[in-house]
Write a structure and sequence with these properties.
By secondary structure, the protein is an alpha/beta fold. It is about 40% helix and about 25% strand. The protein has a 7-stranded mixed β-sheet. The protein has a 4-stranded antiparallel β-sheet with strand order 7-6-5-8. Helix 6 links the parallel strand 2 and strand 3. The chain is globular and about 70 Å long. The termini are far apart. Bound molecules: S-adenosylmethionine. S-adenosylmethionine binds next to helix 3. The site of S-adenosylmethionine has 19 residues, from helix 3.
C-alpha cells in the first residue's frame, strides 16, 4: 500500500486531518519526501537552492560567521539547521576554521552530512554563535485557511473515492489567532498558509541563544506584499526542478512548500532585520567579487587562456544567479541579533 492509500485509510478510520498533519506525513513520515533514502536537495534532485547553485554562497556567508565570531569571541559554534547535502557547510568550513554542527531530520541528508561534521536531530540546548537555516521554514508543516463570507475557514484533508480532497473545517483558536495577527489583507476567497510551526521553530532557537545571530534565508515576503498571491495562495509542489502536481495528488513524491510570511516573524525579537538576499550578499562582498570576476575573465580572454576564461565565466554566472533580482536575489534573509554589541560589517 503506498503513502496516499495509507493516508486515505487513516482518514477513513479517523476522519479528515488538518493540513499540517498531512504535510508532516507527506514530507517527513517514513515514506515521506524527505523521509526516504533519496537525497533531495542536490543538482540532480527536485529543487535547486542557493548553496547548490554555487559554493560562493557558503564562502560568502563564512564572512558573516567570522564577523560575529570576532565580535563575541569564543566559545563559538556554527549551527546549520536543515543542512541538506552539506553544500553550504563544505565551502564555509573550507574558508574559515570554526566549530560546527548540523541539525537534520532527513535520513538521506544525515548520511551525506556525517562525512563533514557532527549531525543531530535536535538543536543544542544552548547556542553561542551563529545559526543558519536556508530553505527550512518554507518546508515546515503549516495549516491552511480560506477567507469565506468575510470569515476564516480551515481547509483540512479528506478522502473522496480514491482521491484526497480539501474539506471545510471550523477554524481552530490558535490558527485564528495567527490569521488575525499576521495574515494581512486577504480578499474574499483568498487562501493563506498558516505558519505556526515556523514561528514556534524560531522562538525555540531564540530561547536557546545566549549570544550571536540567527540567519533565516528563504523565499517569501511580508503579508502586505503577499496580498496579490492570496487568490490561489502560495502552496505548491516541486519535482525535478519544476512545479509539480497538486499538493494532495502525490504525497511523498513531491516537495510541498509555500512562501514564508515574514511579517509573522518580524515581531519575534526587537533586533530582527529583513534583508533581500542580493543586498545581504553584496554587503558581504559578493558584488565586488562579481566585478573582479568580470575583469579577470576579460584578462584571461586577452591572454588567450580559454580554460581559465571558462572557469571564471562559470563562477561569474553562478554569482549572477545568486544575486538575480527576480530570482534568488529576491529571497529574504531574516537576521536576528542576540545580545550583541552590533558593529558595522566591513
Ligand atoms: C529544501 S531542503 C534545504 C536543504 C539545504 N538547506 C539547501 O539549501 O540546499 C529542506 C531541508 O530541511 C530539512 N528539515 C525539515 N524540517 C527540519 C527540522 N525540523 N530540523 C532540521 N531539518 C529539517 C529537510 O530534511 C530538508 O533536508
Amino acid at each position: 500500500m503506498n503513502l496516499k492509500q495509507r493516508i486515505i485509510e487513516d482518514i477513513g478510520a479517523n476522519g479528515p486531518m488538518p493540513f499540517e498533519r498531512f504535510m508532516h506525513t507527506a514530507l517527513y513520515g517514513p515514506d515521506g519526501f524527505f523521509g526516504g533514502g533519496t537525497l533531495r536537495s542536490q543538482k540532480s534532485g527536485d529543487f535547486l537552492t542557493s548553496p547548490e547553485v554555487s559554493s560562493l554562497f557558503g564562502e560568502t556567508l563564512a564572512k558573516y560567521v567570522d564577523h560575529v565570531r570576532q565580535e563575541i569571541g569564543e566559545p563559538f559554534r556554527l549551527v546549520e539547521v536543515a543542512a541538506g547535502s552539506g553544500s553550504l557547510l563544505r565551502p564555509l568550513l573550507a574558508t574559515i576554521d570554526v566549530d560546527a554542527v548540523t541539525v537534520e531530520v532527513s535520513p538521506a541528508a544525515r548520511r551525506a552530512l556525517s562525512d563533514i561534521v557532527g549531525v543531530s536531530d535536535t538543536l543544542p540546548t544552548q547556542i553561542r554563535g551563529v545559526v543558519i537555516a536556508n530553505e527550512l521554514l518554507d518546508n515546515l508543516p503549516m495549516a491552511l485557511a480560506q477567507r469565506i463570507d468575510g470569515r476564516w475557514r480551515e481547509r483540512w484533508v479528506g478522502a473522496e473515492d480514491e482521491n484526497l480532497v480539501f474539506v471545510d473545517a471550523e477554524v481552530r483558536g490558535e490558527v485564528r489567532g495567527w490569521l488575525d495577527t499576521y495574515a494581512g489583507p486577504v480578499d474574499e476567497g483568498g487562501w493563506v498558509e498558516v505558519q505556526l510551526e515556523a514561528r514556534r521553530w524560531v522562538s525555540d532557537v531564540l530561547e536557546r541563544m545566549i549570544e550571536g545571530s540567527i540567519l533565516i534565508i528563504d523565499y517569501g515576503e511580508t503579508a502586505e506584499n503577499l496580498r496579490a498571491r492570496r487568490r490561489d495562495g502560495t502552496l505548491r509542489t516541486y519535482r525535478a526542478h519544476h512545479l509539480g502536481p497538486h499538493p494532495l495528488d502525490e504525497p511523498g513524491e513531491t516537495d510541498i512548500t509555500a512562501d514564508v510570511n515574514f511579517t509573522a516573524l518580524l515581531d519575534i525579537a526587537p533586533t530582527t532585520t529583513l534583508h533581500r538576499q542580493d543586498h545581504f550578499l553584496a554587503s558581504l562582498g559578493l558584488r565586488k567579487r562579481l566585478t573582479d570576476l568580470r575583469k579577470l575573465e576579460l584578462d584571461a580572454a586577452r591572454a588567450g587562456d580559454d580554460m581559465e576564461r571558462l572557469r571564471l565565466r562559470t563562477l561569474k554566472t553562478e554569482v549572477e544567479t545568486l544575486m538575480h533580482p527576480r530570482g534568488l536575489g529576491d529571497f529574504r534573509v531574516l537576521e536576528i541579533e542576540v545580545g550583541r554589541n552590533h558593529t558595522q560589517r566591513s
